[in-house]
């Protein structure tokens, strides 16, 4: 039982390059989330998916796209990376529908630097 | 807008003492509030959840209180140990999303 896994762990991009961050969970959770974490700031929600086939914007969606490939996988894509997207990205999942609370389980994070 | 605040300064505590961290929120009345621990280079890990109708919740050496009048939650670690050193985050629910504080770094000195 691996929980939430993310790949890659580290990535360096040049401005304008694209990449996809991968996330998978094996807890059979319906809800999945993508956050970014910057120094001195709380986790900020980029996108979330309440169930397979649905996605919704969070607080800071600009410059990102997501795909909920199936119940297990939720990917985040940067189409044209900008230095402002340098951050640590976390994927999380929760069983909100069954538990009525949003206790979230996080992956190890991806450290992204855009030059 | 809804806001959640944690002390941005690191908290230094002597081993064996009780550490108390504060989480304040404004412009909202959450149904529950959560506390997470985050170690350097890792994702947050859930610790405790307290609902609005609960005054206090305990788990081993951890205790959380929730004062809806003061709009504040306190997180206590009793008999603190160097292994408790980490950043502690609080979060409350809002419209099917969690609003997160920036976290307080706790340092337990031997």
Mean pLDDT of chain B: 94
Number of beta strands of chain A: 11
Q: Show unreliable segments of chain B.
A: none
Radius of gyration of chain A: 13 Å
The secondary structure category of chain A is mainly beta
The helix/strand order of chain A is EEEEEEEEEHEE
Report the sheet-strand fraction of chain A: over 45%
Distance between the termini of chain B: 41 Å
Question: Spans of chain A of 5+ residues with little confidence (pLDDT < 50)?
Answer: none
Shape of chain B: globular
- Strand composition percent of chain B: over 45%
Structure description:
The complex is a heterodimer of chains A (115) and B (110). Chain A has 1 helix and 11 strands. With 115 residues, chain A is mostly beta strands. In chain A, the strands form 2 sheets. In chain A, strands 2, 4, 5, 6, 9, 10 and 11 form a 7-stranded mixed β-sheet that branches. In chain A, strands 1-3-8-7 form a 4-stranded antiparallel β-sheet, with no helix packed on it. Chain A is globular. The mean pLDDT of chain A is 94. The interface between A and B is medium-sized, with 23 and 22 residues.
Short recap of the structure:
The complex is a heterodimer of chains A (115) and B (110). Chain A is mostly beta strands and 115 residues long. Chain A has one helix spanning 96-99; strands at 4-7, 10-13, 19-25, 31-37, 44-49, 56-57, 64-68, 74-78, 87-94, 104-106, 110-114.
